[in-house]
Specification:
The protein starts with 7 loop residues before the first helix and ends with a helix. The protein is built from 13 helices and no strands. The protein has about 300 residues and is an all-alpha fold. Helix 10 crosses helix 11. The protein folds into two domains: about 210 residues; about 90 residues, Response regulator (Rossmann fold, 3-Layer(aba) Sandwich), CATH 3.40.50.2300. The protein is about 80% helix and about 0% strand.
Length: about 300
């Protein structure tokens, strides 16, 4: 297509991803939602992945031929690492944090690219051999990660359909990443590889949309809090309280508190330690000018629920 190696499916995903990123930028600017910029960065990395993986390699590229594969694999490594970081950071689905932390995953991928791809290529001058040496051990580690990921999320609390949807979509996203080494090993089938990888992005996009819809469903519970912000903004600043909008995680936890859920139940739902919930709750109380949970509930429970 266009005289390059890009497949029409890859070009289609490039257009869809561009639309999603532009829409997210507009929303982040219009709604002043700084938390969306992490998602926007993820989208930009997918755009780079589609561009480099779709258009490279081509004959007129300056420099040695292997350089094009180094660029393509490097972008893929950054993207994969960032997806793991995104899942860990945004959804608190943290597994094997000691062995498969974000830093360790990045080190494994970068070290593998150098030791298992570039070094074998230097000695063999064979792309197929170096690709196999690189992707097979990475694929084993990736499937171990996916197995551990599944073991973590299958213990979901059944009462929370919102959290279950999020975990299922997160699993779909993680599966796309895990299958990348296998797709690389099979060969350059763009329509298959890029379909699987972009499904990862669309799963995360669905999570963000679902999160926003969940917020809209519960906005009545948060109405008193938002009204408090508007009427007390200057007073909070003058009293030297740290004033800023609640983060997305804090909004979710605030909704759970307003639903009278215990900290233990909240920690199980969001895959975070109970002391982390306590820390989030403390930040929520500070930002809303209350001292504790009881005062928070007394001030911000909706009038309907009180009746």
């Amino acid at each position: 297509m266009f005289g390059t190696s890009i497949h029409w499916t890859t070009f289609f995903y490039l257009l869809v991803d561009t639309f999603i990123v532009l829409f997210a930028v507009i929303q982040a600017t219009r709604l002043k939602r700084n938390s969306l910029w992490r998602f926007i960065l993820l989208g930009v990395l997918f755009l780079l992945y589609n561009i480099t993986g779709g258009f490279l390699p081509f004959d007129s590229f300056p420099g040695p031929f292997i350089l094009q594969y180094v660029i393509t694999y490097s972008v893929a490594i950054v993207l994969v690492t960032y997806i793991v970081f995104y899942l860990y950071k945004e959804y608190d689905i943290v597994i094997l944090s000691t062995y498969l932390s974000v830093n360790n995953i990045a080190a494994i991928l970068v070290g593998g690219l150098i030791c298992l791809f570039l070094v074998p290529f230097y000695f063999t001058q064979s792309l197929d051999i170096s690709r196999k040496i690189f992707t097979i051990p990475i694929a084993v580690i990736a499937f171990y990660f996916l197995w551990a990921f599944y073991q973590r999320i299958k213990k979901l609390p059944k009462q929370s359909t919102f959290i279950r949807r999020r975990a299922l979509l997160s699993l779909i996203s993680a599966s796309g990443v895990v299958l990348l080494p296998i797709m690389t090993l099979i060969g350059d089938y763009q329509w298959l590889t890029f379909t699987i990888m972009n499904t990862s992005f669309y799963a995360i996009t669905a999570i963000e949309i679902d999160r926003y819809l969940h917020f809209l469903e519960n906005k009545n519970k948060m109405f008193e809090i938002f009204s408090f912000y508007e009427s007390n903004k200057e007073k909070l600043i003058e009293s030297k309280l740290i004033y800023q909008s609640l983060t997305r995680r804090e909004i979710e936890i605030a909704v759970s508190i307003l639903n009278k859920k215990s900290y233990k139940s909240i920690s199980e739902s969001f895959f975070i330690a109970q002391h982390t919930v306590t820390k989030h709750a403390s930040n929520i109380f500070k930002k809303t000018g209350v001292k504790n949970r009881a005062e928070f509930l007394n001030r911000f429970e909706s009038k309907k629920s009180r009746k």
